[in-house]
C-alpha cells in the first residue's frame, strides 16, 4: 500500500514538472493580459546579435540601403540628375576643375594680329619670309663656296635675300603645301587616297620646277636687259639653258623646297603662331624692315644706276 502511494506521488510530481514553463518564459495569459502569445514570423528580425543572418539578407538592399524609385540607393544622386545639376551650376564632383580656364586655350586676338592668310596669321608668315631670306642666303653661298671657294654678300649688306622669302610666301598663297595642294582657293584633289597623294606631290613638284626653271631665265634676262648686270652664270653646268638656268640646279632647288614645304613649313608655322603678339610684331619690324630696305636699295642701285657689287667677301680656299 505504501509503494502505491509513493508511485502516485512521483507521477503527480512529474505531471506538475511537465506543465511548468521554462525559466524566463511566461505563459500566454501573463505575456498578453490573458491573451495567448502569438508566434513570430520566420523572417522577423531577431533581437539576438548572435542569430544567424540569412544569405538573402546580404543583398545590395541590406548593404547599401533601400533602393529608391530611380534605381539608386537612398542618398545617392542619379547620374542624369548629377549632370543636370552640373549644368545648372550646382556643385558636383570635379566642378572646380571644369570651371578653371584651360591653359592651352588660344588667346583672343583682334585686328592685325588676327588677320589670317588661309591657315596662318600674316604676322607669323612674315617671320617665315625672314627665315627663308636667311636660308636663301646660306644656300647661295654654299653653292658659291663649292664652286669658287668664297662666300660673299650676294650684292646686299645684310645676310638675307628677300627674294627667297617673297617666293615662299607667294607659293604658299597660290599652291599651299604639297600635302594640301590647292590652286589659291580651289582644292584640286577633293578625295584623299594613295593615288591622289601621289598625284598631288607630282603636280606640286612639276609646277615648282617650271616656276624655278623659267623664273630664273626671265628675271636674269630682264635685269641684264635693263642694267647690263649679270646676276649669276651657270656656264659649265650640264643641261644648261642660257646662262641663267639649268636642269640640275632647278631640280636641286625643287627638291629642297619640296622637302621644306612638306616637313618643315607646317611644324615651324605652328611654333611661330604661338609667339606672343608683341614679340612677333617686334621681329617683323626689327628684322623685316631693314631687310626690305636693303633689298630695295640693291634693286635701285642695280636697275637704276647699273651698280652691282658684293660689299664684303671671305675667301675660304
Task: Walk me through the structure.
The chain is mostly helical. It has a domain of 195 residues. It is built from ten helices and eight strands. The chain has a two-stranded antiparallel ribbon with strand order 1-2. Strands 3-8 form a two-stranded antiparallel ribbon. Strands 4-5 form a two-stranded antiparallel sheet. The longest helix is centred in the middle third of the chain and has 34 residues. It is elongated and about 160 Å long. About 19% of the residues have low confidence.
Which key features would you list for this structure?
single chain, 317 residues, mainly alpha, 10 helices
Topology:
Blueprint: H1 2-19, H2 28-31, H3 60-64, H4 79-88, H5 95-99, E1 116-117, E2 120-121, H6 122-148, E3 150-152, H7 162-175, E4 182-183, E5 186-187, H8 194-227, E6 240-241, E7 245-246, H9 247-272, H10 277-305, E8 313-315
User: pLDDT under 50 segments (min length 5)?
Assistant: 21-39, 49-53, 55-67, 83-104
Global mean pLDDT: 77
Helix share bin: 40-55%
Give the helix tally.
Answer: 10
Number of strands: 8
Strand content: 5-15%
Distance between the termini: 156 Å
Shape descriptor: elongated
Arrangement of strands in the largest sheet: 1-2
State the secondary-structure class: mainly alpha
The biggest beta sheet reads: 2 strands, antiparallel
Query: In angstroms, what is the radius of gyration?
Result: 47 Å
Spell out the helices and strands N to C: HHHHHEEHEHEEHEEHHE
Amino acid at each position: 500500500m505504501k509503494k502505491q502511494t509513493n508511485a502516485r506521488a512521483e507521477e503527480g510530481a512529474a505531471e506538475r514538472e511537465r506543465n511548468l514553463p521554462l525559466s524566463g518564459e511566461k505563459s500566454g495569459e501573463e505575456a498578453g493580459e490573458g491573451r495567448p502569445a502569438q508566434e513570430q514570423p520566420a523572417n522577423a528580425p531577431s533581437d539576438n546579435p548572435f542569430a544567424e543572418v540569412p544569405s538573402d539578407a546580404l543583398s545590395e538592399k541590406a548593404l547599401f540601403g533601400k533602393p529608391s524609385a530611380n534605381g539608386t540607393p537612398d542618398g545617392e544622386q542619379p547620374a542624369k540628375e548629377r549632370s543636370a545639376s552640373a549644368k545648372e551650376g550646382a556643385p558636383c564632383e570635379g566642378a572646380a576643375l571644369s570651371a578653371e580656364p584651360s591653359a592651352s586655350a588660344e588667346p583672343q586676338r583682334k585686328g592685325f594680329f588676327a588677320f589670317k592668310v588661309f591657315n596662318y596669321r600674316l604676322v607669323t608668315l612674315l617671320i617665315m619670309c625672314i627665315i627663308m631670306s636667311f636660308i636663301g642666303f646660306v644656300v647661295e653661298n654654299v653653292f658659291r663656296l663649292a664652286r669658287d671657294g668664297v662666300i660673299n654678300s650676294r650684292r646686299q649688306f645684310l645676310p638675307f635675300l628677300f627674294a627667297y622669302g617673297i617666293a615662299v610666301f607667294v607659293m604658299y598663297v597660290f599652291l599651299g603645301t604639297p600635302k594640301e595642294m590647292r590652286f589659291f582657293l580651289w582644292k584640286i584633289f577633293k578625295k584623299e587616297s594613295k593615288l591622289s597623294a601621289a598625284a598631288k606631290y607630282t603636280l606640286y613638284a612639276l609646277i615648282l620646277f617650271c616656276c624655278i626653271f623659267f623664273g630664273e631665265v626671265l628675271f636674269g634676262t630682264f635685269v641684264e636687259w635693263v642694267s647690263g648686270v649679270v646676276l649669276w652664270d651657270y656656264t659649265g653646268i650640264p643641261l644648261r639653258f642660257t646662262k641663267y638656268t639649268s636642269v640640275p640646279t632647278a631640280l636641286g632647288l625643287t627638291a629642297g623646297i619640296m622637302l621644306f614645304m612638306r616637313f618643315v613649313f607646317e611644324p615651324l608655322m605652328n611654333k611661330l603662331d604661338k609667339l606672343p603678339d608683341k614679340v612677333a610684331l617686334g621681329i617683323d619690324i626689327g628684322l623685316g624692315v631693314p631687310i626690305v630696305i636693303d633689298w630695295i636699295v640693291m634693286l635701285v642701285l642695280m636697275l637704276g644706276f647699273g651698280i652691282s657689287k658684293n660689299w664684303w667677301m671671305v675667301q675660304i680656299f
